[in-house]
Amino acid sequence: MQFQYDVLIIGAGSAGLSAALTLGRCLRRVLLADGGPPRNEASPGVHGFLTRDGIPPAELLRLGQEQLQQYTTVEMQCLEINEVIPLEKGFRASGCLTTDDTPVSITARRVLLATGVLDVLPPLPGFRELWGRGVLHCPYCHGWEVRNQPLAVYGQGRIVTGLALLVSRWSHDVVVVTNGPGHLTQNARRRLRRQHIKIREEHITRLIGSATDDLECIEFADGSQLERKALFLHASQYQRSSLAEKLGARHTSKGAVWVNSGMQTSVPGLYAAGDTTPGAQQALLAAAAGSRAAIVINEALTREECPR
Ligand SMILES: Cc1cc2nc3c(=O)[nH]c(=O)nc-3n(C[C@H](O)[C@H](O)[C@H](O)COP(=O)(O)OP(=O)(O)OC[C@H]3O[C@@H](n4cnc5c(N)ncnc54)[C@H](O)[C@@H]3O)c2cc1C
């Protein structure tokens, strides 16, 4: 069978763009399907990305797209893929152009999922509105910007304990806010106390932000307010795309798409990279994973083309 593309990359964030760059440099026929904005769309800047520290997320992707232009075997489409069907040796995928809903169907020898995740925020006023500015997901990405300022860490149990201890690296004024019973063990309370981290277990009614979407204070059910510059939380998350699930690919207990050491999912020929897979989630790591997946895929295709 003649395939239209060597590789279909689904998702054009850091992982997908980086994979497209490496595969383009291998002269591979690639379709890069860009289904919409990246996970960090709400953030003013991507931090910790070597040579691009603080760049707006959209600008990082624009540069990535611009640098792909010289690789003429790489095609990028504003295309949301909604189905991938395994064939005997490859895949058929279908979706719609996001510009005008035109249906598209293509075939590819390999598929790389770089579809990322979505964050689920507590359903309280202010969390979604201040997401990415006053409500932050990761001190490695944003701790420096709010260093030495009054900070809050939201959550319960072991997760909030670990995150609060981590955040105390960036500020000596950290308060854990649990929005009801914190489910903290005596040991957790002791460890927090040792770092001078206070605990507020009252219910939260809302977060109040400034005109620039910085956090100003947390308001509790009794009307009292706690002034804070930012609030960190480990948001729960789910896969942005259900394609891996529909294909029957194995997932980890935390909901990530499982991959082997060669970045292949449990479905032969289907690879995954970036936030969608287990491990630390950062733009630079996603870009590195995309590049690594591209190398592995190119080598698998080369083996197929050059049988022993
Ligand atoms: C608020 C916030 C701030 C952050 N700040 C930083 C930071 O400062 N530094 C840092 O290193 N990291 C930061 N991160 C983490 C960073 O955003 C992610 O690690 C990174 O975006 C992962 O890249 P990715 O390519 O795996 O996924 P994404 O960037 O999320 O890209 C996935 C892409 O796949 C597309 N897609 C999904 N499904 C389909 C489909 N069916 N068809 C076609 N396309 C599809 C999506 O539209 C999206 O464009 C931040 C995250 C958040 C939430």
Automatic annotation (TrEMBL):
Pfam families on file: Pyr_redox_2
Family matches, as Gene3D superfamilies: FAD/NAD(P)-binding domain
InterPro entries: FAD/NAD-bd_sf, FAD/NAD-binding_dom, Ferredoxin-NADP_redctase_2
GO terms for MF: oxidoreductase activity
Domain FAD/NAD(P)-binding: 5-290
Superkingdom of source: Bacteria
Alphabetical UniProt keywords: Flavoprotein, Oxidoreductase
Protein's recorded name: FAD/NAD(P)-binding domain-containing protein
Organism for this UniProt entry: Hymenobacter sedentarius
